[in-house]
Amino acid sequence: MPSENNLPFFKNENISVNIGGLDHEYQIETENCFNLVFFLSSNISLEADDIHSEISIQKNSYILHYSFSKKIAKLISTSSSAMQFLHIQFEYSYISNLLDPQESNENKSILDRMIKNQFILLNHSEPPKITVEMHMIIKEITESSKKGVLQKLLIEAKIIKLLMLIFEQFSKSKNIPTTENTAQITKSFIDKYYTQQISTHDIALQFGLNETKIRSEFKSEYKITISEYINELRMLKARKMIIDREFLIKEIASECGYEYVPNFSRAFKKKYGISPDKLRNI
């Protein structure tokens, strides 16, 4: 049975959200609903009515599962540490309204695949990995302090975004193009996400690559380190935005991946020898 700490983080008539962090055992009861579980620690095994042995779950993977009939599953900690996970349960009616099968063939196809549990194993082999974007959304959900209607709006918006990312991930199940090497894959990822808080670890997690290999091959290919390349992209974007004079300096800092304006100003002055404010006033 779930512990006393398993009070829902959020719950309404369609959605229930639970955050693991204090639990060594967690029970999931399901009937005509979907369960989306993100596994955020490596010490979790899964027991379910329809399997005959415990399954060890890898860290940074997730499962999206539908049960029509009543079933019970358990997450169990395999160590002395509490489990880290995010569990989102939503009613069938919520998903069928969201993906109205009468609206388009695409909606019907996606809903059919969800009901048939075709979003459990990626490439028919293992549970899919949580992507960097998914991690960011999970963080927004778990760290949100919003209550009432604002919490409801945030939770529902983030669930929709998570589902979109899951559908995209499965539609592009061959995650790494065979024509690209590690350095090119890394560069493409950075080019897309350099304004966010990304690291070599995030890239390794996204593509299942070795961090040391990522660093060495990127440096060998482009004659610059990953952190230097990210900084270069951010500074070029910041310089253009400052010259355009359409944004406040604090807005530019945020847009270029800096949480604090002083850090942004120091980096900019180190790069160009002039502060953002002085450049704008020239």
Overview of this structure, please?
- It is built from eleven helices and nine strands.
- It is an alpha+beta fold and 282 residues long.
- It has three domains: 10-171, Regulatory protein AraC (Jelly Rolls, Sandwich), CATH 2.60.120; 182-223, no CATH class; 227-281, Arc Repressor Mutant, subunit A, CATH 1.10.10.
- 46% of the residues lie in helices and 18% in strands.
- It has helices at residues 92-98, 105-115, 132-142, 148-171, 182-193, 200-207, 211-222, 226-244, 249-255, 261-272, 276-281; strands at 10-11, 15-20, 25-30, 33-39, 44-48, 55-57, 61-67, 71-77, 85-91.
- It has a five-stranded antiparallel beta sheet.
- Helix 3 runs antiparallel to helix 4 (148-171).
- Mean pLDDT is 84; it is low at 1-5 and 174-179.
- A hairpin with a 3-residue loop joins strand 1 and strand 2 (15-20).
Features of the shown structure:
five-stranded antiparallel beta sheet; disordered N terminus; 9 strands; Jelly Rolls; 11 helices; four-stranded antiparallel beta sheet; Arc Repressor Mutant, subunit A; single chain; 3 domains; 282 residues; alpha+beta
Please describe the topology of this protein.
Elements: E1 10-11, E2 15-20, E3 25-30, E4 33-39, E5 44-48, E6 55-57, E7 61-67, E8 71-77, E9 85-91, H1 92-98, H2 105-115, H3 132-142, H4 148-171, H5 182-193, H6 200-207, H7 211-222, H8 226-244, H9 249-255, H10 261-272, H11 276-281
Antiparallel strand pairs: 1-2, 2-9, 3-8, 4-7, 4-9, 5-6, 5-8
Helix pairs in contact: 3-4, 5-7
